[in-house]
Structure formats: C-alpha cells, structure tokens
Amino acid sequence: MLISMARWSKVTQSWSLSAKLTAAYSLLITLVAGSLTLSLYLQFQRAQRQAIKERLHDITALSVPQIDSDFHALIVTPSDRVSSYYQITQQRLQEIQAMSDSIKRIYTLRETKEGEIAVIMDYAPPPASIRTIGTPLTPVTPLLADSLENIQEPKVESQFFTNARGELVVYGYAPIINSIGRPDGILAIELDATPVRESEYRARAIASITFFITLPLALLLGWILARHLTAPIAELVEAVERVAQGDRDTHVEVRSQDEVGILAQTFNHMSRQLKTSFETLEAKVVQRTAQLAQANQEITALNHRLQQENVRMGAELEVTRKLQQMILPKPEELSKVLGLEIAGYMKPAAEVGGDYYDVLEQEGRIKIGIGDVTGHGLESGVVMIMVQAAVRALLANNETDPVRFLNALNRTIYNNVERMKTDKNLTFMLLDYHEGILKLSGQHEELILVRAGGIIERIDTIDLGFPIGLDSDISSFIAEEKIHLNPGDIVVLYTDGVTEAENEDGVHYGVHRLCEVLSQNWQKSAEAIRQDIIKDILRHIDQQKIYDDITLLVLKQRQPSY
C-alpha cells in the first residue's frame, strides 16, 4: 500500500494545478454522489427488510390462536398421526399456509427432556415432505438457541436464512399457550424472503447505474471549477517566467481582492523591488555579505541550542519511560485480583516502548487489556499512554459493551493520531473475566489457553476486531468469544516481540517454542510460568540486540477456596 501511494505521489507531482484541482473537485463530487446513492440504497434495504419482518410478525401473531393448544398437547409420539386431534391440528396448519403463498412451511416445536428441540406438527405445500413427530430441528436459529422458554410473545429473526430446500426465508415464532395458561410449544413459520432479495438486487443495480452516470458530470464540473480558479494563477506563472528571462518591467493586472488578487499585488511590488535591487547590486552584495556573517553567528548559536535541546529531549524520553513503568499494574495490585493469578512483564526495545497491558477490577469484574503500538520511541510511547488513559476513562464510565468500548477507544486514538500527524496504530485485545468466564474481543496476537494436563489451545483473534487508529469507525469488525476456565487453566497473552525475538542466526523464538515451555510448566504458579518463559526467551536471544518490545501476561484460574 505504501509503495502504491509513493508511485501515485510521483505521478501527480508532474500534474498542473488545473489537473490537480480538476481531480480533487471530481473526486469530491463523486464521493458525495456515491455516499448519497449508498445511503438511499441502505435506507431502502432496511425498509424492505423491516416490512417483511413486520408482516411475518402479524401473520405469526394471528396464526397461533388458531392452533387448538389442548389438541396439540396430546400429540407426543409418531403413533398419534392417526388420531383425530392430529388430523384437526394438521388441517389448521394447512389452512394457515393456504392464506399466503409466501408461507413456505409452518410447524410446531417442543423441547424434549434431553434439551433438544423437536418438530411436533409440520406442513409444507407439495412436493415438500412432512417431518415425523419428534424429528430434531435443524438448523436451530438464534432465537431458539438458548431455550424455547425465552419466546414469550411473537418474535421474528433479525436476519434471513436458507432453509433445508435452499429457499431464502425469514423465521417467525410465537408461543402456544394451553387452556391453563402454560406454554406447550412454539408455532414456527417460514416466510419467503426471495422477493425482498430480488428487489434489493434491482435497487442495487439502479443505484450503480445512477452513480456511474454522475461520473462524467463530476469530471465536467471539476474541470470548469478548476479552470475558473487557475486562470489568474496561470497568468501569474507566465509573468514570473518573463521576469526570470530578464524582463523586469513585467506587470500583471489585479482583477480581484481575494488571495489571488493579493498575490498579484505582491508580485507587482516584488517586480518593482527586484528592478531597484539590480540597479544597486554592488551595495546589496556588501550588505548581504554582512548579513551572511551575522547569519553564520546565529547558526553557531543555534547549533549550541540544538545540543542543549537534545539533552532536554533525552531527559523527556527518560521521564516518559518512567511514566510508562509507573502506570503498569503493580505486583501487589495483581495479587489482590479474585479468581485469577496474574503475572506480567514488559521490556521495551528502546528508551520508550509501544507495548501496553493493564489489569483493572471493577465491581467484581476483571478487565484486562493488551496492545502493541507500531514501532517504538517517543511517539509510540505517547500513543500507549493515551490508550491506557482512554481505557480507564471508558471503564470509569461503566462502558462494558465490547463494540461500543472498542469503537470509542478507536475514535479517541484515531483523532489524536491524526492531530499528531503520525501513522501510528496498534493491535488491541480486551478481556472481561467474571466467575470463571473469560470474554475476549479485539484483534491481537493469538491467545494461548492451557488446560489441565498441559493441553494447548490456540485462539486466533483476527476476526474479533480491527487495528486501533487506522479507521474512524471499526464497529462492524468487532466480535466477541467466550471461554470457560476451569481451576488450574492458564491463559497467556503476549505481543509479537515475544514470538519474533531473534537469535544471532536470525531465527525467531516462535509460538511453538512458547507452547513447549507452557506444556512443561503448566502445573506451576502464574509467576513461576512467567519467569520460565522470560528465561527461555533471553536464552534464545543470547547476545543479540532486542529489536521489539517484549510484553507477556500470564493468567491462571485459582483453585476454589472452601
């Protein structure tokens, strides 16, 4: 990406100002048109999908009272298919389906003693086959995933699915309540979503055509605006060229009082001064010689001040390094964390590092963060301190939702990095621990989980987030994964300075060697494991220079106390 941008910069350097403005205005108009078109399409898509969901909600709500709950309660085994109450209930399903061709299948569900969701009644228009009583339901959609008891009123799935026959449908559910007010199952309806998808395709095609029609108009408007703005500047350029060729009587007409007009006035004034200067050249040479001598003295003094400034900046770097170490969690803080043994380590590659980790406890929940800012030095250290401050501020405001948390953190860092005019960004992982449950979100290095017996599990975080500070909005990239920890289980977090630590032959330490150390020492305490890992890394590095910050965090689930 950086190579492509460099090549593009070289290409545009040879462009005229008019060409650059034409490109800029055209791009701006195109972006506005594209954004408007995309916004209209997304609004149309949301409206279409909301309409079909509301329709299915109404169909489901109106259909469930037509099911005789007492008859439905009698249907238990496949042998009940010959009973009159089965036939009556089946007839009701068929009548409901016949109300609309959009209903692809209608059936009822009940949860078995084993916790499975089974089909009780089922009807779909021919040639579809009817499922037998007790057939396990597949697939199980999100609304049904936890328990059927969660459906206390008509509900509709938020997204579309493909059913067993390859049809695009949306699912709706409603509870079947018997005569004594207890739930006896769930009525499920599959409504055809194909027309909605087809209308979205048509709207997308129309939006694309509209967008591409605006491109020639954008180019034309950009060219007109660029010509209007650059014509006076082109005249000034021509006048400058005449002066460079020796015509010191050159004068340009001032047509406006804006910045271009001021530039024209300045040029006329400069032209007159240049003519006067050449007429008194010898005097000017003597004067400039004296000024150069004075400038030389000033440069000497400036060099002295720069030396002093270097000393001052070195002191500031030392202060920043100490500040980083001060805000890291202290061992005595980590020892007070309930439920977990925690041991941390950070060694910067330079005076100021770009790695970050923190452990916070709030209302019985443990928040753990680990990150790695690109590069190292003062800028990376400043970004690291900003991250630590922003994380603590968000937690102080009781922000617990991972999407809102990470997106707010990203906006803060993104805006500050923009203000700093630097390209720094970082990988960042956020962990939430409470009573043996560990939730993780954000993109960082792999998380290593060591179960009892030294069994290693490696959890990839690439799909759980996006680098912080690269884009203004990363909410769509954020996801969460849940891990159940048993007593004695170990979680290891690290930055790439651990796995990419090199020996004198350029060989990286690597994840596999880290896992070997863990599998051999998992039965030890978190602090002992941390020490063993760091010793092994330093043994691997030997006399080689450390090129990147090394950060390690070891968590171990405590044994329950009775």
How would you describe the overall organization of this protein?
With 562 residues, the chain is of the alpha+beta class. The model has no long low-confidence stretch (mean pLDDT 83). Helix content is 49%, strand content 19%. Strands 1, 2, 3, 4, 5, 6 and 7 form a seven-stranded antiparallel beta sheet that branches. This is SpoIIE family protein phosphatase. The chain crosses the membrane at residues 23-44, 205-226.
Q: CATH homologous superfamily of the largest domain - what is it?
A: PPM-type phosphatase domain
- Give unreliable regions as ranges: none
Our count of helices gives: 14
- End-to-end C-alpha gap: 58 Å
InterPro entries: Bact_Sigma-Reg, HAMP_dom, PPM-type-like_dom_sf, PPM-type_phosphatase-like_dom
Keywords: Coiled coil, Hydrolase, Membrane, Transmembrane, Transmembrane helix
Coiled coil: 278-312
Domain HAMP: 227-279
What key phrases describe this protein's structure?
flat, 562 residues, Beta-Lactamase, 3 domains, 5-stranded antiparallel sheet, 7-stranded antiparallel sheet, 14 helices
Secondary structure topology:
Blueprint: H1 2-13, H2 17-63, H3 69-74, H4 84-98, E1 103-111, E2 117-123, E3 135-136, H5 142-145, E4 155-156, E5 161-162, E6 168-177, E7 183-192, H6 194-244, H7 259-279, H8 281-327, H9 331-335, E8 340-347, E9 355-362, E10 365-373, H10 378-396, H11 402-420, E11 426-434, E12 437-441, E13 447-451, E14 455-459, E15 480-484, E16 490-494, H12 496-499, H13 511-521, H14 526-541, E17 550-557
Antiparallel strand pairs: 1-2, 1-7, 2-3, 4-6, 5-6, 6-7, 8-17, 9-10, 10-11, 11-12, 12-15, 13-14, 13-16, 16-17
Helix pairs in contact: 2-6, 6-7, 8-10, 10-11, 13-14
